[in-house]
Specification:
Chain lengths: 341, 375
């Protein structure tokens, strides 16, 4: 049984949540209720407060409200209004910046600790350095042939996601870059298959099915050399306002045109021949204009983009057979149009 | 009673013939701007001299919209886009919408991609951290920017004096609608569920001043009659919207009376009171910031959940029916909490999933029949 299934079933059964809601949220709310991992994995401590930012989706807001209510703990909310414009405007910077400052006061009240500006600056410097190094590491997929199995970024991104402010993360990404550099220098790769085609993987990974989503690609000699999801956690900034702007500019907070441009940039840099677009049942924000995004990227880069249905965390919403067929279809088109090596 | 029936027939005609209304506005040389969910500052459209025209999807199947949205999105946004893509909104000079949920965020981009300049999008960005000075400042600035976009579409200028007058009219209208909702709840023999809905929906298509005059007349006529709720199954409707003809038809048929509602398209939309003693843009922002108890808003105390229970108690409802809009995240997050709170308060609770593209509701009939027995 997939390890997340008991928690999903608890969320839908005991707690009464709709199975249409984001699976991250359902798993998290169930865990908050159960307080233990059902499959014997190491338990996480439950929080004393939650800090919520809706720059990736508004689902976060309702999810964290419910967590706060269920656990009887405070919610600190950083609201990042979605931007319909290409650029992040001044009123957003002012609003979001003011919320960061207010959050500092809330944190002081909740924790009883005093804000340490020097420590903050140090963590910002380190986080930014970590973000820069992560982006550099991820960029090694751009080499042709790639020294990297692109799916590996789904593993390494965990460090950038949850531990950007730690010195160990900076060290880890330096080591990763050293590895990739030596691969290039020695004409090696940890992609142990032919690289007949190079693609963009668009969207969040199907975490319960990482192997199942990689295997058909590997068998067909298709390496993933471009993605937005992993590198999205490589936030870089020098000043407070730049930090605010960085958090306002994450993929799900920006408009269609900017989203397309971002994909075109990583797709061109990764020298892609095609793309797989994850229509993610859990993520209404990411999937909501994915069909149009795929059409535009496909037209502008002149490469085929194929969609498949899946889910970032609910194993019931992914079919290996359908995925396999989609990958075969993509490969067929790439070969018929002469795309690829 | 005959006068009430005549008035209700007028509302019914308007509510079921929005295109006729649109044509009338256009024939009169007015510019018309579509207004979608939720809680957009409609006063700005009125102050610009244009007619605000409600666009909340329609019953039907999304075909063209499916090229933009995957299937698991709320029908309200899908059908609104479908209307835009298939020319059903031709004549509108703009479409104003907010982005309080993820589907709305995506819908705004799909609208620009699919409908484009044929009906320009007027995107209203509202802050969720409302009880703060910086939230208010964001709302003021945002509404000022929206005003410019409305002026472009409306070919009119919004000045403070005109906007203050529009705010006054809208406050009167909202107060009249709140009164109507109460009177309809106490007079279900005269105003059934479908008739009540028609009165509300007509307000989305008529000029506000015209609708206000008719509603005031109806309210006066109802207030003069003795209450008639005896024998009806008195319920509170919660959710986003109720206008699924099959559902409202069943509610009438099975003897239900809506004594209060917590619907985003109905009472939540009339809840706002805009201050009339301060500069108008600041007043609109203050009104937005004062909203609370709503699934679509940041609500860490879950005041929305308590509000539903309070509504049921205060209105004397015997039960709560949650019309859960399928794929609506904000409502789906609150639904289990609302259900639990009602259960704890001893208030019978029924949840029915609705969708503008669902064709049959026979299961809902069984649910409503059984629920009626409980009440």
């Amino acid at each position: 049984m997939p390890p997340t299934l008991p928690l999903l079933e608890h969320a839908e059964g005991d707690l009464g949540y709709s199975s249409d809601l984001c699976a991250y949220a359902r798993i998290s709310l169930a865990y908050a209720d159960v307080g233990a991992c059902p499959n014997g994995e190491r338990d996480m401590p439950l929080p004393d407060f939650v800090l919520c930012c809706n720059n990736i989706c508004n689902c976060m807001m309702k999810w964290y409200e419910n967590l706060g209510k269920h656990l009887g703990i405070p919610v600190i909310m950083i609201d990042v209004p979605y931007s319909n414009d290409y650029d992040i405007d001044e009123k957003r910077i002012a609003y979001v910046g003011a919320q960061f400052r207010a959050a500092i006061k809330q944190l002081e009240e909740i924790t009883g600790k005093t804000w340490d500006e020097d420590k903050f600056q140090e963590v910002c410097r380190r986080s930014s350095e970590c973000g820069r190094l992560w982006l550099e590491a991820a960029s090694y997929t751009n080499y042709k042939p790639s020294p990297v199995n692109g799916f590996e970024l789904f593993n390494h991104m965990a460090v950038a996601t949850v531990a950007r402010g730690r010195e160990e993360s900076v060290d880890a990404f330096r080591m990763l870059i050293d590895d990739y550099r030596s691969f290039v220098a020695n004409n090696e790769s940890n992609w142990h298959a032919p690289e007949n085609h190079r693609i963009m993987f668009e969207g969040i990974a199907c975490w319960p099915y990482l192997r199942a989503t990689l295997t058909p690609l590997k068998e067909a000699g298709v390496n993933t050399t471009a993605m937005v999801y992993g590198p999205a956690f490589g936030l870089t900034y020098r000043t407070f306002d730049e930090m605010v702007e960085a958090y306002c500019s994450v993929p799900n907070a920006v408009n269609l045109e900017r989203s397309v441009e971002l994909r075109k940039q990583v797709g061109a840099a990764g020298k892609i021949d095609g793309g797989l677009v994850h229509i993610n049942r859990s993520c209404k924000m990411w999937s909501g204009f994915a069909p149009e995004l795929a059409r535009r990227v496909s037209a502008d880069l002149g490469v085929p983009m194929i969609t498949f249905d899946g889910d970032q965390a609910d194993p019931r919403n992914f079919s290996e057979a359908q995925y396999q067929t989609r990958v075969e279809g993509l490969v067929e088109i790439m070969e018929s149009t002469g795309k690829g090596a | 009673m005959a006068a009430i029936e005549t008035m209700l027939a007028t509302f019914e005609h308007v509510a079921t013939n929005p295109h006729e209304q649109l044509k009338e506005h256009l024939d009169a040389g007015k510019r018309v701007i579509g207004v979608g969910p939720y809680y957009a500052p409609e006063e700005l459209v009125h102050a610009a001299g244009a007619v605000p025209f409600g666009v909340w999807g329609c019953s039907g199947t999304a075909n063209e919209a499916r090229k933009y949205f995957p299937p698991f999105y709320c029908s309200l946004c899908q059908m609104t886009l479908e209307m835009g893509l298939t020319g059903k909104l031709a004549g509108l000079s703009g479409y104003m919408t907010t982005a309080l949920c993820d589907t709305q965020r995506a819908a705004s981009q799909n609208w620009r991609a699919g409908v484009g300049n044929a009906i320009p999008l007027i995107y209203v960005s509202q802050p969720q951290n409302r009880a703060t000075e910086f939230g208010r400042a964001y709302a003021v600035e945002s509404y000022r920017q929206v005003a410019h976009e409305i002026e472009e579409c409306a070919h009119g200028i919004i000045d403070d004096e005109g906007l203050a007058a529009s705010i006054k009219l809208y406050n009167e209208w909202r107060a009249a609608m709140r009164q109507f909702v109460k009177l309809a709840g106490t007079h279900p023999a005269e105003v059934g569920v479908q008739a009540r809905l028609a009165v509300i929906n007509a307000g989305y298509y008529m000029e506000k001043a015209d609708h206000l005059a008719l509603v005031n007349e109806l309210n006066a006529a109802l207030a003069a009659l003795p209450e008639s709720a005896e024998g009806f199954k008195r319920v509170v409707l919660s959710g986003i919207f109720e206008d699924i003809p099959a559902i409202t038809g069943m509610l009438d048929e099975l003897g239900y009376a809506v004594v209060a509602d917590d619907l985003a398209k109905e009472s939540r939309s009339f809840a706002m009171v805009v201050p009339e003693d301060e500069p108008p843009f600041e007043a609109l922002a203050d009104a937005w910031c004062a909203l609370e108890g709503d699934s679509l808003l940041y609500d860490p105390e879950k005041a929305h959940v308590k509000k539903v229970v309070d509504l049921a108690r205060e209105s004397g409802a015997a039960g709560v029916i949650l019309l859960l809009a399928k794929f609506c995240d904000p409502e789906e997050f609150d639904a289990p909490l609302v259900k639990a709170a009602c259960r704890e308060a001893g208030i019978p609770f029924l949840q029915i999933e609705i969708d503008q593209s669902t064709e049959t509701y026979e299961q809902a009939r069984t649910q409503l029949e059984a629920f009626g027995g409980l009440l």
